[in-house]
Design brief:
The structure holds two protein chains of two kinds.
Chain A: E1 15-27, E2 34-48, E3 53-57, H1 64-71, E4 79-84, E5 87-88, H2 97-103, E6 104-107, H3 121-131, H4 137-150, H5 167-179, E7 185-189, H6 197-214, E8 217-222, H7 225-231, E9 234-239, E10 242-248, H8 249-254, H9 259-267, H10 308-312, E11 318-320, E12 324-326
Parallel strand pairs in A: 3-8, 3-9, 6-7, 7-8
Antiparallel strand pairs in A: 1-2, 1-4, 4-5, 9-10, 10-12, 11-12
Helix pairs in contact in A: 3-4, 3-5, 4-5, 5-6
Chain B: E1 11-22, E2 29-40, E3 44-48, H1 55-63, E4 70-79, E5 82-83, H2 89-95, E6 100-103, H3 107-110, H4 117-128, H5 133-146, H6 152-156, H7 165-177, E7 183-187, H8 195-212, E8 215-220, H9 223-229, E9 232-237, E10 240-246, H10 247-252, H11 257-264, H12 269-272, E11 320-323, E12 326-328
Parallel strand pairs in B: 3-8, 3-9, 6-7, 7-8
Antiparallel strand pairs in B: 1-2, 1-4, 4-5, 9-10, 10-12, 11-12
Classes of the chains: A alpha/beta, B alpha/beta.
Chain lengths: ~350, ~325
């Protein structure tokens, strides 16, 4: 959706999404022909600058993971393009794929499922370097030990298997593995959601430190607005496959202009019982599953501000307050958040 | 010891020195160490802890649902003036679902997929209250309306897979309310849900508590949910209750270094978007919780504790009062 509107630009972006769209066929029966399409990601455009973290928030089913899978070439977009280092990732020559993989890496949510249980930690971290012929022998071992130290693992741990590590330590292994090829961009899909609170802080701080040291770009995908607020420079909010609001983290979170962003923030539990000064306005109902294409604003059925216009005309993203894009006809009328949530 | 200090209302639930072990012979490990807390009628107590702290084992012990390897090695669980640990299996069956009920974390797996919602909702009523099928059905419709489900009559005939996660959790809550229990144990009731649905369920539980006056034992790792719902909080670490306080007290002036660390480790939206030029760095608790097998002799928090003294490594401090409503198990924060 944002593709058709004006774009907010910064320095030469590390990652560009341009009018990215993904339709999945919906079949009436198991072997039947596709009768309709479900639009999981709809005209998504944004950029992630070097050294920048873009936080992507949204509830389950909004299309966040589908988006990540297209960026990582696990599925092909229906239309639109992903550019990494200026090259379309869906049109890479076979010989160009390794270079692309060295530019962009991924950290997954579940460090229990994403590490091969039969490979030792040291080999897990070294494997990407071996595959890409970046080092071998003694040099490889030295670089593995170096990476392990950077993520806070001692070299004595490298001979262990994944099951001998705690969840937080496994996520450190996964981070070291992602960094082994010195990528420019890391896509992190809920990287701390499976971790305990006290361990979560360790991993978030590690990610912040590594970004500062290496100038990494992060696409940080999470349903948890607190962790997104902690790491992100900019935030994008997704609803039913659309980016409904995108802009500087502090501005979007403090003064959301899309009614969905506002209600999402209002739903976040307070950080301190003293902030619990009012009964929250809750988002009514549940997000419908992604559907076909219609002219209405997809949020209209749940929107407290919806008017007749929203039923017939899908709002295009508009620039608001200089730096942000909001896809709502009545963004100027969105009431401010009640005191206590972010003020 | 705890009940003497707070008001004169009798306790609805009192857990006293509950010790639970798991395994047998040489592989036996203690997972709850003399856990004590109490709960009055209409009160919400949050049992807060990370994975492995023993919070779910505490809930299962109260319900009499410990897995086979689990074994209560000592202590008492009093519901009113009845000792639950001394009850026979059939006596417990009468209490469970009737006077104590439970809302589980995963509404996906804790509802029976092959029974209709109506059947699952009325089962407890017909068993405990000996009401007719028609009365139970009518009550089930009321309950579904109470938990905010639309078209309750139609829902009775539906199966769990036809409902969304949030709707299933509402059904779980309706089931827990069916026999108007005195105590509802809610084990991570909102963890599997999206924030917007989580907010709906939190509001629902708060509403129901106000209307029905049931006490709630809320088991969670999420301090935000605690801030929204709890009257009092007990913090569990490696099978020990390390701090108990009123909700505001605990957030305003935590005493145990673990509680402090936990509160500081959560990114706070209100502070992150404040006008300060730099974002505050999250405080970290180094290391992780010991597993039950490698439990050290003294305070289990010692290896991660910023204020540990030599004594901590050998002696576990008792939970002692610092004022009428606040107790802590720490040699440095509650000197003898």
């Amino acid at each position: 959706m944002l593709g058709t509107g004006p774009r907010v630009t910064g320095p030469e972006p590390a990652l560009i999404l341009d009018a990215l769209r993904k339709d999945f066929p919906q079949r009436g029966s198991l072997f039947g022909r596709a009768q309709a399409h479900v639009r999981a990601v709809d005209d998504v455009s944004f950029e992630v600058g070097p050294g920048e973290t873009l936080g992507l928030v949204g509830e389950s089913g909004c299309g966040k993971s589908t988006l990540a899978r297209m960026i990582l070439r696990m599925i092909a977009p229906t239309s639109g393009q992903v550019l990494v280092g200026g090259k379309r990732v869906d049109a890479l020559l076979h010989s160009e794929v390794p270079a692309y993989r060295r530019k962009i890496q991924m950290i997954f949510q579940d460090p229990y499922a994403s590490l091969n249980p039969r490979i030792r930690a040291g080999d897990l971290i070294g494997e990407p370097m071996a595959i890409h012929n970046l080092a071998r022998g003694a040099e490889l071992r030295a670089r593995v030990a170096d990476l392990a130290a950077q993520v806070g693992l001692s070299s004595s741990m490298l001979a262990r298997f994944p099951h001998e590590f705690s969840g937080g330590q496994r996520q450190r292994i996964a981070i070291a593995r992602a960094l082994a090829v010195s990528p420019e961009i890391v896509v992190a899909d809920e990287p701390v959601s499976a971790l305990d609170v006290s361990v979560r802080a360790q991993v978030l701080n590690l990610m912040a430190d590594l970004q500062a040291e290496r100038g990494l770009s992060y696409l940080f995908i999470s349903h948890d607005i607190g962790t997104v607020a902690y790491l992100s420079h900019r935030v994008a909010v997704m609803y039913l496959g659309l980016i409904v609001e995108i802009g500087p983290a502090r501005e979007v979170l403090r003064r959301p202009r899309h009614p969905y962003t506002r209600l999402l923030l209002e739903a976040v539990p307070v950080a301190h019982p003293r902030l619990k000064t009012h009964r929250r306005e809750v988002l009514r109902g549940e997000a419908p599953s992604a559907g076909g294409v219609s002219d209405a604003c997809p949020f209209a059925p749940r929107c407290p501000m919806a008017q007749d216009r929203c039923q017939v005309e899908r709002p295009l993203p508009r620039v608001l307050e200089g730096h942000r894009l909001v896809a709502c006809h009545f963004a100027e009328d969105t009431p401010d958040l009640p005191k206590g949530i972010t003020s | 010891m705890l009940q003497a200090s707070r008001g004169s209302a009798p306790n609805l639930l009192a857990v006293e020195d509950l010790t639970v072990t798991i395994g047998r012979g040489v592989s036996v490990a203690t997972i709850l160490h003399a856990v004590s807390f109490d709960l009055k009628a209409g009160e919400t107590l949050a049992l807060v802890g990370e994975s492995g702290s023993g919070k779910s084992v505490t809930a299962l012990s109260i319900m009499g649902l410990l897995p086979q390897e689990g074994h209560v090695a000592g202590g008492r669980i009093m519901l009113g003036d009845e000792e639950l640990l001394a009850k026979s299996r059939s006596e417990l069956t009468q209490i469970r679902g009737s006077r104590i009920s439970m809302v589980f974390q995963e509404p996906m797996t804790s509802l029976n997929p092959v029974l209709t919602i109506g059947r699952q909702l009325t089962e407890g009523l017909q068993f405990h209250r000996k009401v007719s099928r028609a009365t139970a059905d009518a009550r089930a419709v009321d309950l579904l309306r109470l938990v905010g489900l639309t078209h309750p009559e139609r829902r009775l005939k539906q199966y769990p897979h036809q409902l969304s996660g949030g709707m299933r959790q509402r059904v779980m809550i309706a089931m827990a309310l069916a026999c108007e229990p005195d105590l509802i144990i809610a084990d991570e009731p909102t963890t599997a849900l999206d924030v917007s649905i989580q907010a709906q369920i939190i509001n629902l539980i708060l509403d129901i508590k106000e209307r029905l006056g049931a006490a709630i034992l809320l088991i969670t790792h999420d301090l935000g949910v605690v801030a929204e719902m709890a009257d009092r909080i007990a913090v569990l670490y490696a099978g020990h209750v390390v701090e108990i306080a009123n909700c505001l007290q605990l957030f305003d002036a935590p005493l145990h270094p673990y509680t402090e660390g936990l509160l500081a480790a959560v990114p706070r939206l209100d502070q992150l978007v404040a006008d300060t030029p730099d974002r505050p760095r999250l405080a970290e608790l180094a290391g992780g919780m010991p597993s039950p097998g490698e439990h050290p002799r003294g305070c289990p928090f010692t290896p991660r504790c910023p204020i540990a003294v030599p004594r901590c490594a050998v002696d576990m401090p008792p939970l002692s009062f610092v004022d009428a409503t606040h107790s802590v198990a720490c040699w440095e924060r509650a000197p003898e």
